[in-house]
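User: ok so my PI wants both of these folded by tonight, can you help

Assistant: No problem, let's get them done. Here's the first:
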Amino acid sequence: MRAGVPIRLAAKLDVVDKDYFDNHVRPLRQHPLVEFIGEIGDDEKGEFLGNAMALLLPIDWAEPFGMVMIEAMACGTPVVAWRRGAVPEVLDEAVTGFVVETLDDAVTAVGRCPDLDRARVRQRFEARFSAARMADQYLRVYRDLTDRSAAL
């Protein structure tokens, strides 16, 4: 809302999250820029993420990877995420998105997202996180392990 752009929230609402949702998210739904979509399936993610200006990931835990970040990048969508867990390792600053520390930083970053080249976001995804890239990396690890075993 502070960034002045519409926000569409897609999330699974677990029973354990109901109080948080009722106290923090539900009141925001009254704002004309806020739309709560609810849970979306894999068949809907490409369109949802691909049509977004950016993915906003305001995590406050040490996320070990953040699959949703690479799902967004696969669609060419930049990511704005808080500096927690693996976020700084997954995002390429000012290329695939922005790593932020504060809400003010996030608002500024959202405004900068339209300047990022969406084709380049997709290219970085391909270079770092595609299935082919991951398979090559696994093969490299396996070869290193077998080479070490043979040397013993």
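One down. Here's the second:
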Amino acid sequence: MTSTQPAGANPVDRASGVPLWVQLRADLRRRLEADQFRDHFPGEHALAADYGVSRHTVREALRQLRSEGVVTAHRGRVSALAETSMEQQVGTPYSLFASVEEIGAVQRSVVRVLDRRADGVVAARLGLEESTPLIHLERLRLADERPLAVDRVWLPADITAPLLGVDFTHTALYAELERHCGIRITGGWERIRAVVPDRAERTMLECPSNTALFAIDRLGVATARPVEWRQTLVRADRFTVTAAFSAEDGYRLGMAE
């Protein structure tokens, strides 16, 4: 059988007895794994023409791929590739910068604030006097130029003032903290909760109306001294929390009161 399909698409075999939508789903998976749809995922009309099948067949194949989380679809929009989700492993130090880089996306930050200021509430969280000067860094975090998170960090100015001269456009805070201040975060705690974004947050992060956010509070400690208070809002449709466990050690998740 001679294929009239464009390069990349394998023809369906109508004599095989395998449902056409199953064959189409399998070939779309193959092409996705081969990264053939990096720039654009075709719509129903284009796929029906490419494979010589009905739109009903295409819809069933896409429905199955959507249920698997491979592609996404919204009312009034064509199907699109599901975005790769960043993962945070419970119980391990976490870097949003590293997670973005690990999935092959380009990380960039828009620095909204980098200054010295006083904040009594944050200072108390760090075990400091309320008037203690702090370095404050606020960044809009982008993955492949698409908003992912807004990150706000406060650190004691007496030991982190050199960070005021750092360009945080494409670098990790912890790397710069160790490079310029000789400080390495060795422990701490995090609290992760789901929140509904307000209008300003939804606009800044370009969130769909049905997307929630994860709010992540972090206290970072270096050699028993609290040196970092961080609040991060990250799009919940692009971020996953995972936990490892074993029969010997198990795992523990904190419960909100």
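Residues 1-6, 74-82 have pLDDT under 50 and may be disordered. The radius of gyration is 23 Å. Good luck tonight!
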